[in-house]
Amino acid sequence: ISKSVTDTYNKLELNLNVVAGEFNLVDSDIPEYLTLNSKYSENGGVPSVKETKGNETLTLDFKQEFKPQVFQFNSDSKYNMVVGQKLAVNKLSLNLTAGESDITLNKVKTNAIDLKMTAGDTSLTFSEDSLPERIDVKLVAGSLSINIPTTVGVEINSNSVAGSSMYNKTKLSENGTSQFNTDKAKKVVINID
Description:
Blueprint: E1 2-3, E2 11-18, E3 22-28, E4 34-39, E5 44-53, E6 57-66, E7 78-84, E8 88-96, E9 100-105, E10 113-117, E11 121-126, E12 134-139, E13 143-147, E14 153-159, E15 164-167, E16 170-171, E17 175-180, E18 187-192
Parallel strand pairs: 2-6, 2-8, 3-7, 3-9, 8-10, 9-11, 10-12, 11-13, 12-18, 13-15, 14-18
Antiparallel strand pairs: 1-4, 4-7, 5-6, 14-17, 15-16
């Protein structure tokens, strides 16, 4: 799947619903605003990307489609999505039911991240240029790893009863506030519930 920019948009919203398998999102200087390469079984996990065009915002909804009663949590499906650098990501929403996700953004500016994890593992990696001011995470179970340059001040408010969280390979407490690099001008707030 490849989507090219033919209309004028200022912002991109990505809504990613991953039920099972491995999902990777990176940015690149590709001319398209989105490319998606997928591997999935004939029984399900077929990728679908729906486009909704607003005045200045283009919204893309990714989901997996499974045949009735054929769903597999141990799916070997793999999805590699590349987002182009032409549009800032106004909002990135990821709903991970199971499986693994790896989001690595180096150049595309993101304004807001909303992550819901039922199970599975997620890694979020940002550069100083791509980092939003706020990341909200609902962690039911699973493992979350957040990687942010040490040139950025970080406040992490954690109130999670299950799952584990790490910031730059440092395990976070399940409850409480942790602060890192507080002397830095650029800051990000991460809320984990």
